[in-house]
Specification:
mainly alpha; single chain; 0% strand
Length: 160
């Protein structure tokens, strides 16, 4: 009798987790799309924006999009996993720009390749990426607290 009750509870918990996961993934997807639009807008309308915004926000928003994308993929993991994962990814892309072989420069010459891989290494980009990711992480933490979601979904440990 007791094992039947436990299996029913486990099944209900899995269903709740699945519903939460899809809602959270949808919210992160919307955030990713909004961030992409803002980032592209910061490039297209750079002449109409303040110089500081035009010079720095595009890269920070790109890093923000990477963070949000990782959160969408890893919705049940700790926020710090996406924080460190996105920093590692962004830094790897930036350092890869030191490699200037003809085949990768051909990819970088395309619009999508240039947006994803960048063109050349800039130390300032590392700072922009870090700021974008840390701001995204802080906003994500705030949203988690506002939503009352202060535990991980997979083992009920507090988020860090």
């Amino acid at each position: 009798m007791r094992s039947v009750r436990k299996s029913v509870i486990r099944k209900a918990n899995r269903e709740i987790k699945a519903k939460f996961s899809w809602k959270a993934r949808a919210a992160y997807l919307i955030a990713v799309l909004v961030t992409i639009l803002l980032g592209l807008g910061s490039r297209v309308y750079s002449s109409r924006l303040p110089e500081f915004v035009a010079n720095h926000f595009g890269d920070a928003l790109w890093a923000c999009m990477i963070y949000l994308g990782l959160r969408m993929l890893w919705v049940n993991r700790q926020l710090s996993v996406a924080l460190w994962g996105s920093l590692l990814f962004c830094f790897a892309i930036e350092f890869s720009q030191m490699y200037q072989a003809p085949w990768i420069n051909h990819i970088r010459a395309t619009t999508l390749g240039g947006l994803v891989l960048g063109k050349g290494f800039l130390t300032a980009d590392l700072i922009r990426y870090t700021v974008g990711i840390v701001v995204s992480w802080a906003l994500d933490q705030g949203c988690q607290k506002l939503a009352g979601s202060n535990t991980r979904r997979d083992n009920d440990k507090p988020l860090k």
